[in-house]
Amino acid sequence: MKKKLYNNKYEKKLKIGGGSFGSVYLVEDISTHNQYAMKKFYLDNISNGGASKQFSLLTKLKHKNIIEVIESFTNNENQYLITSYYKTNLLNIIKEKKLSERIIKGIMKQLLTSVNYLHSQNYIHRDIKPDNILISSNGILKLTDFDLCTEIPKNKNEPLSRNVITLYYKPPEIFYGDLYYGKGVDIWSIGCVFCELILGYPIFKGKCELETLGKIIEIVGAPTEKNWPGVSQLQNYLPYPEKNGILEQVFNDKISSQGLDLILKLLCLDPSQRISCEDALNLEYFSDACDENELVQELNLE
Length: 302
Ligand SMILES: Nc1ncnc2c1ncn2[C@@H]1O[C@H](COP(=O)(O)OP(=O)(O)O)[C@@H](O)[C@H]1O
Ligand SMILES: [Mg+2]
What we know:
five-stranded antiparallel β-sheet, binds adenosine-5'-diphosphate, binds magnesium ion, Transferase(Phosphotransferase), domain 1, Phosphorylase Kinase, domain 1, alpha+beta
């Protein structure tokens, strides 16, 4: 029997992921034998614009640390997006072994570089988490899954969707129903990824929104008018007695004092006081971050 081909050239090899918007497959171009990833978007669920919109977005966002797109096409049932295929993702790496701070710095530097570029183009990703960060066999991080990515509205009074960012990586302003958020939401998620690289598990792992917010309050502290002016005006704000977090205890001897300082800057409750990617990259902390070759060796990427 003849194998089914997609766009007359791609043959499915393996399912590598599945999510709310569709599935992802490893495919092979039958004439060149090159491998790619093919993401399927169901036609009845393309509120995110589907493959063609993501293709044009990713064509604009060209950067070493952002996934490379090849093409998009539609058949009768679905839309498809073809991208370069990458070896693994950060979630697998975290599960596999304990990482040294030098390796973590190298990963964080690339992640911040990628999001800094996105933010400089006036976009926010809104779903930064370890499984949306791929790593190539030559040690280059590639940010992916732009399903929830949006341009920051030029008009500051234009509300954004509250239904964004995977639970464990959601910042407090989203829990409180702030619809006028900005780049800070990605910074919080990056802070959560940093913590997960060190701890080996998600730092704010709750079963529901309330439990996750509870973890944030326990570890980082309670948002109040004092540390976050204006927070009590947000529509879902729950007043909470002043309380300091136990962040230092959580990390104890697991990280350097400079590293802990960066966590505090990324996981700052008030989004307007959260550090930017650019300022984070300029910190002395990253001066001895490991390079791509070291990542290849340490993470056995070849
Ligand atoms: N280009 C790619 N190369 C290798 N693996 C990929 C690629 N794109 C996606 N994946 C894998 O498939 C998973 C799901 O893809 P993603 O784009 O995040 O879709 P979803 O919307 O389902 O989360 C990723 O977490 C990753 O493990
Ligand atoms: Mg994803």
